[in-house]
Amino acid sequence: MTIIKAKILKFLLIGVILVAFLNSCYSPMQPSGDVWNFNFSSIYNPAETDIKADIMVVHNTDTSSSLFFKLKKNEFVSSYDEKTNREYIQVLVKYVLRDYETTHLCDSGTMLYKLESNLDSDFIYSMNIKTKEKEKYNLVVLVSDNYRKKSRRVMLEVDRTEKNSAQYFLIQKVDDKNEILFTSYITDTSASYQIQNFYPSDSMLNISFYKPIKTMPQSIFASTVIPQIPKPDTVFQHKLNNSLKFEKQGIYFISFPQSPESGVCVVNHGNNYPNITSPKTMIEPLKYLTSNKRYNDMINASDKKLAVDKFWLNLTSDLKRSKELIRIYYNRVQMANEMFGTYKQGWQTDRGMIYVVFGAPATVYKGPDVEQWIYGDRPEISNINFVFQKNNNKFTNKDYILQRENKYQTIWAQATETWLKGKAFSVN
Per CATH, the architecture of 1-161 is what? Predict the structure, then answer.
């Protein structure tokens, strides 16, 4: 058995125990030997639910961490309460925390929130979870609309193995709401932010700035090469808890002088990220579908909108069909940005590339530091199977590298040819 398969099978045991707690939160497949395989694909499939949940963890004591979550109230169904003459929503939050390697149960909990539906559209709350220094965990959070029984499942790595790594920092916008930054990227580049840390080793921070990294992924049938992190363009100091702006597009790595390789990363991809809103940002992901010459012609065109329109209209003479292709393709690009963004835009990562071209996988197996994506309704016979290995770097814990193989050349050609014939590629 390969190391990767062993890791996957080991982590699948988590699903057996989690299902009992989360009321069949995972969709079981047929058992293989002594191990039940559980499908985690709903994490990457927006069609599973219309509930969006932002989740983050901040370590603030020696024995606990704060689990923050942000929800949009307008995604929940309200119910009228005759006693109070008001509309309410009910949000049910369940979580399970397990040791990263042994899968031993470390903590679990359930909270039910009853909220007025006419208040602020965003609901932000926190609860304490039991964690320890030097430990690493897997956290599964299930957020449910208690009235219509719809839910969103989120998985998160909780890491306390290294002091002053990303989850020891809390970044908030400096305004009347003190809005917490739940993502590694900012969407308001003119705003000021405050950086907090509950275990500061210094009153000053080192901030390393890197220009945007926009390198495209290698071909999926090339030899696997681990990308190297470049040297920073500039390094400057900033006082902890003072306000700071991230106005320049690029990567900001924030750390204490005593631990320069351990810190938190903030990325400025521009105000519109993760959305695709300009002709230029529509052309860039077409690199996956077209030749270098055609791509260069479009990216250098004086009228980029016309170039994009011509590309899609040339695939099919049917205007309605062209619009549907555009909707599907750029929806995948945006979802890749939201789910797989690292120090690069999500669609430029290995997982993002596969997601954009092939769509959401039908089956996802997750293990410590590894993911396996399978396309097709029968994973036991599917020949479209991708394995991603986690690439540890100081910027993020979400960087996964595709294990490239020469055999992928045929399926890549089939997928891109399908798009260029005016059809969205899908095998599920």
Answer: Sandwich (2.60)
